[in-house]
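Form P-L/3: holo structure prediction, ligand NAP.
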Amino acid sequence: MIKRKIGNSGIEASVIALGTWVMGGWMWGGADERESINAIHASLDCGVDLIDTAPVYGFGVSEEIVGKALLGRRDKAVLATKCGLRWDLEKGDFHFHSDGFGVTKEPSKIKVFKYLGPESITFEVEESLRRLQTDYIDLYQTHWQESTTKIEDTMACLLKLKDDGKIRAIGVSNASVGQMREYGEIDSDQEKYNMFTRMIETNGNLDYCINTNTAVLAYSPLAQGLLTGKTLEPKKYNNGDLRINSPLFKSENLLKVKMFCEEILPFAEEHSCNIGQLVLAWTHSRPGITHLLCGARNPEQAVENSKAGSIVLSKDELYRIDDTFKSCFDQQ
Ligand SMILES: NC(=O)c1ccc[n+]([C@@H]2O[C@H](COP(=O)([O-])OP(=O)(O)OC[C@H]3O[C@@H](n4cnc5c(N)ncnc54)[C@H](OP(=O)(O)O)[C@@H]3O)[C@@H](O)[C@H]2O)c1
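OUTPUT (holo model):
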């Protein structure tokens, strides 16, 4: 397993990380707690030590599951969670409505706000520590940025938590370069990055992170499972599953994914790996991308994804896989 530093924090973590959003069930059509815990244990056993969660994933459920799974194994994990999305307080910027299963366009019973006020973070960190059954968080990230709190006030609060030993490193997520500059010394930036979504290559985030030695934690590296190549026919998802309305999972795109998978199969065979593992290896080889947050809902997926952490592709392979992707999806 390749390991990389999380910014200047002195913390080293596996290039393949485990994302636990799906384990909260919310927005993913439900999840099985036992399978989730087994997936966390299997990840640790395979050398995946970075585990990413957030309070909003299942409104506390994902953090609670991670807490249960890490009982007696806390020292084996680099634990990352987040703050700044409140469903129990109407303050900051309104983000979305939820019916408890997924995000709804219409007003519903749950209202989620983006809020990074210091008093809110001070409350949230205690809630996370309680749910995670630990007394420190390795990487604490602001989940989404908002317009009602000065970043310097948020940062002062985060630095105080660090001084107090409650968190070891500070990260942001879904942030612009300007916002990262305002934060100052951060260790990581968590952004969506996969073969389909490469915005951080052009919006300045990647360059900024490379130049400031900030780790980039790529989320949705498998495009929500699509890039494993397993979903090549339209599928019926459970209520609330975010893939129901995703253009990525529409028949027309699935046909292109199928073509792409067929074309890159020889590269996978060359490395004795499958399509998903090849895609993950390609993704963690991109300049500036330091860690991949791979979601997994069972131990089989977790083990499979972990293996991508030791696959090294040549420059020529990286170029040809990218070229194939671009030709299948008509991208320049
Ligand atoms: N900061 C943010 O705003 C933000 C946003 C999104 C995600 N994240 C983080 O990034 C993590 C990963 O993102 P993600 O969950 O959106 O997407 P992902 O990793 O691209 O996809 C995860 C899903 O793909 C399927 N899958 C994974 N491994 C597989 C395998 N080996 N074989 C077959 N299917 C497999 C599973 O779904 P099925 O079994 O249901 O098909 C799994 O839930 C999250 O858990 C979270 O930690 C952060």
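COMMENT: The domain at 3-245+287-311 is CATH 3.20.20.100 (TIM Barrel).
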